[in-house]
Amino acid sequence: MTSAASSVHPGRAGGPAVPPASGRVGFGRLLLAEWTKIRSVRSTVWSLILLVVITLGFTGLLTWLTVLQWDKSDPTQRARIIADPVGTILGSGLEFGQLTICVLGVLVISGEYSTGVIRASLLAVPRRIPMLAAKATVFAAIVFVLGECVTFSSFFIGAAVLHSHAPVALGDSGVTRAVFGAGLYLTVLGLFAMSIGAIIRHSAGAITGVIAFVLVLAPLTQLIPGTIGKYIHAYLPSEAGQLIGQAHQQANQVLSPWQGFGVFCLWTAVLLGIAIWLLKSRDA
Amino acid sequence: MIEARDLTKRYGDKLAVDHLSFTVEPGRVTGFLGPNGAGKSTTMRLILGLDKPASGSAAINGKRYADLAQPLRTVGALLESRAMHTGRSAYNHLLFLAQTQGLPRSRVDDVIELVGLKEVAHKRTGGFSLGMTQRVGIAVAMLGDPEIFVLDEPVNGLDPEGILWIRNLMKQIASEGRTVFVSSHLMNEMAVTADHLIVIGKGKLIADCSTQEFIERSSEKSVLVRSPEVARLADLIAAEGGKPTARESADGQAGTLSVTGLDAARIGEIAAAQRIVLHELTPQLASLEEAYMELTADSLEYGVPAAGGPVPTGHGPAIEPAASTAQGGAE
Lengths: 284, 331
What we know:
The complex is a heterodimer of chains A (284) and B (331). Chain A is an all-alpha fold.
């Protein structure tokens, strides 16, 4: 049955000896593995490039248009911009840039399901939760570092453009917190999207779900009349979370910036909890 | 060693795996055989902790899979062919798995070399043929140099050279005292690789025995007789209680009979007593494929309703090594 075509190796099948095992699968090893996973697919690189390009591009474009139409614009709008220039700057570019994090957050986990990699991953890490924890940690770290770079760059671009009409500096009250906080918002948004990706497991469905949460639900709840509508709107994950990106709580707002961020973290924690529970209990 | 104890898996109200118990011993290739949909893949996933059993348990060297400290160093598994990201290179797929187990990069290079994918290791696996993907899967299984191999339809999609390579690899691994548990829905493939067979149908255990025993136990033996006086001989055999069937001989010359119900010795005696010349008298084992068809006929998940027993293939020559193994077909 043997032939020249079949190259069975002399000695032990499987090649040279493997170094001895040392201890249980450690968390450090899992972080390294998740880093390898995330950096070795194009969707990561492209999403992150898009985050930078879209956020900085729209910040520049929208603040420039604001300045251009300054004299023609509505006085209340001008007053709002002067009252919170940092909120205006961060709100312009990140509103669009955040969508890349929504997509990437879903893909880092749903991509494993759609390709079948999840089975390889869970065979290597059968306890499952450490795998998700390592993935969340690595992804959050990447988004945090890049997110802070993007929000600070975005601020400096916007502040430079707006300078003549609504001057703002990092030293102004609440501004540094708002800019830094916007990076935190992106980080938690990434985990929020990842949790939904882990729950739904299908890329298209999960991305739709996250975007519905972030973009669609807010305008819808605004249609609900009265105080109930106002409160529901305020406690929506993205609405609450984005408060961290403004310098001060405004008169008509239910939550302060940190409270809003806390509400968003709570949403994310609950979804992550559901994701963990499902990961543990479902067949892979 | 792999042990399944009373393993049961339910999908809705359908039992995919029905109280399966078996042991896979080291030092031999154990074939896991059954028609498509018999529950082979599900059983393997239960053993590997990917799916949760409704009841029962599976143990690897006495432990649950999830309790293995560094599972890839104990068990090497090949599950469905495409368990990799199409946008990631084979090298990076192996690298991240190696990193989870604390294996060095050099080990990744070694297994890539071993499966012959050195030239394409850094290309995205999306462009790989089924055979190349299967080789990456084998590399993954070998990565941790494990004692136990669980391989689900490893020859699927491989060319004849690749099939031969896998067969010899499995045999060598088993000869080193390691455990090889390999599934297939192709009987002939198992006939040339497996020393031991675990056969299931509709999630139930049908047979757990050596390959040789499986063939002998489950097939009707026949004797091939060639003689110039075939008509006379047929009558005599029938008179003695045998069942002769006329058959077309390969060379189209002397008449040929396939006889069941009498053994070769008795047929020889009958012929000698009547001074009938015999040109051939060969005891035959039914082909493994027939034995398998016969056994699993009642348990086909999908297929034509049996119209009068096993498929009438005629009694061909004994164990036919695998002309049909390359046809593949996923579970």
